[in-house]
Amino acid sequence: MTRSFQVLAAAGILLFGASAAVQAAGIYEVPRNGVALRLKPDAGSKVVDRAKKGWKLHVCSGTEPGEWAEICEIDSGDGAWYVYRMYGLPGENVFVRLADIEPPAPRLAPRASGEDAGPVAALVPRDALRRQVDAFTQGLVLLKVTGSSVRLRRGPGTSHEVAGMANENGQGWHSELIAERQKSSGDGRQWYHVLYVLEQQEETAYIREDAYICADFVKASSLRPVDRERIENDRFGILAIRPKDLPAFAFSEALTLRRDEAGTVQRVRVPAGTRMVLFTIPYRLSGQGDRRFVELWEPLDASRICRLGSLPLDELEARQGYEGEQAVRRWIASRR
Questions:
Q1: Interaxial angle between packed helices 225-236 and 126-138, expressed in degrees from 0 to 180 and rounded to the nearest 10
Q2: pLDDT tens digit string along 45-82?
Q3: How far apart are CA 53 and CA 35, in angstroms?
């Protein structure tokens, strides 16, 4: 791909504008190098290119049968290209297996009006979410400090500001850390990027951190099951609990739920027919007066559930005729 070709593609976009198909396209991300882009939706067709990790692939308005997606535009980091201009094809697009790409993080759009107006996010498909969770936790390690008064810093190197202290004896704020497996270089040494620390005062969960610690003063090992559960709950809202012990239900229409993230209120739209369970007892939200809410969760497998968001209890009780309604009503009644 030459730079002159890139300019030509950009000029074409400016002159003719984006087509309706491109404007409505979903945007997927390439998770690894070497993903095949083919001329036709067939594993035996010609490979036009091998996509690289991080490329954004704009999927046309529909997908082909057989788990193939038609790509009409590609952004390899320098701006979007029309596919047929990018590869000199006669007005044709290229195809990729849906299993080889994944949606990026939810894209937020402003909500027009309504109570607690805020952004509305689409749910990440369950299979894609599980891939994201597994990829994230596999890239982490557990660090145990092997020295005393070890400094944590704001960057990989001793020239960076001190962010805290760590001790191998467990005293003080830090003794066990969660960090990225891949290390950074600084001052001739290797440094781990710390993402979480264990709160020793409570020993109930990891808390978020953003610091670096020198690899010379820690011992790295794989995450323990309890570490993985804590991180998955903190980052993805996933709990290790048996869904079969909770009332299951599904609505025949789409549902918009409230979700509090980092002190801000967001809205998430749940498609019709999504299987959900109730987990938390009814509770009150600050600033909502006496109005009570319940948390709705989605089963991921036989042992884990993922948080979707909260719904006012009176709104849930007013709904009738949905699958699992009686189980929901019995569950709420037992917790009043």
A1: 130
A2: 888 899 888 888 888 755 545 688 888 888 877 656 77
A3: 8
Torsion angle of C-alpha atoms 296, 297, 302, 304, degrees rounded to 10: -130
12: how many CB neighbours lie within 10 A of its CB?
A: 14
pLDDT of 157 reads 93
* Three-class DSSP category at 116: coil
d(CA 310, CA 175): 35
Considering the entire predicted model, what is its pTM? 0.59
The pLDDT score that the predictor gives to residue 203 is 52
pLDDT of 206 strictly over 90: no
Mean pLDDT calculated for residue range 174-202: 86
In the structure encoding, which two tokens stand for residue 123, read together?
Answer: 């749910």
- Please tell me the distance from the alpha carbon of residue 279 to that of residue 244, in angstroms, as a whole number: 11
Q: Which residues lie below 8 Å from residue 57, measured CB to CB, with a gap of 6+?
A: 27, 28, 29, 30, 51, 69, 71, 73, 74, 75, 96, 101
Cβ atoms of residues 177 and 150 within 8 Å: no
Lookup result for tokens 């498909």:
125
Q: Which two tokens stand for residue 86?
A: 């990018």
SS (H, E, C) 32-100: CCCEEEECCCCCCCCEEEEECCCCEEEEEEEEECCCEEEEEEEECCCCEEEHHHHCCCCCCCEEEEHHH
Measure CA 115 to chain center: 26
Once rounded to an integer, what is the mean pLDDT over residues 211-234? 92
Q: Which of 132, 227, 222 is nearest to 181 (CA)?
A: 222
Contact between residue 316 and residue 251 where contact means Cβ atoms under 8 Å apart: no
- With 0-12 / 13-18 / 19 or more C-beta atoms within 10 angstroms meaning exposed / middle / buried, residue 47 is exposed
For the chain, what is the radius of gyration of the CA atoms?
Answer: 24
What is the dihedral angle through the alpha carbons of 217, 221, 227, 231, rounded to the nearest 10 degrees?
80
Could you tell me if 279 and 241 are in contact, meaning their C-beta atoms sit under 8 angstroms apart? yes
